[in-house]
Amino acid sequence: MFGRFAMPENRKEHVDYGIDISSWQGSAIDWNAVKSNNISFASVKVTEATGYINPAATAQVDGSGSASPTSRAASWT
C-alpha cells in the first residue's frame, strides 16, 4: 500500500520537479542553480484576477529559458 505521496519504485525515474515563482522572487533568479538542483520546469505567476500583472514575469520566463527548464505561465483568479 502506498502512502499519500508515495510512488512505486519503477516510476520514480519519471518524476519531474518544478518550482512556482512570482513577483516575490523578483527577476534575479539563479537559473543555473535551479537547473543544477534537477528542476525541470518553472511555473511563473503572470497575473492575478484583472488588477495585477507580475512586473518581473517577462524576465522570469526569459531567464528560465537560459537554463532550459520549461516555463509555464499561470494566472490566478
TrEMBL record:
Polar residues bias locations: 61-77
**Which superkingdom heads the taxonomic lineage of this protein's source?**
Bacteria
Under Pfam families, the record lists:
Glyco_hydro_25
Region of interest (Disordered), ranges: 57-77
InterPro entries recorded for this chain? GH (IPR017853), Glyco_hydro_25 (IPR002053)
Q: Give the similarity note.
A: Belongs to the glycosyl hydrolase 25 family.
Report what the protein is called. Answer: GH25 family lysozyme
Q: Which organism is it from?
A: Saccharothrix xinjiangensis
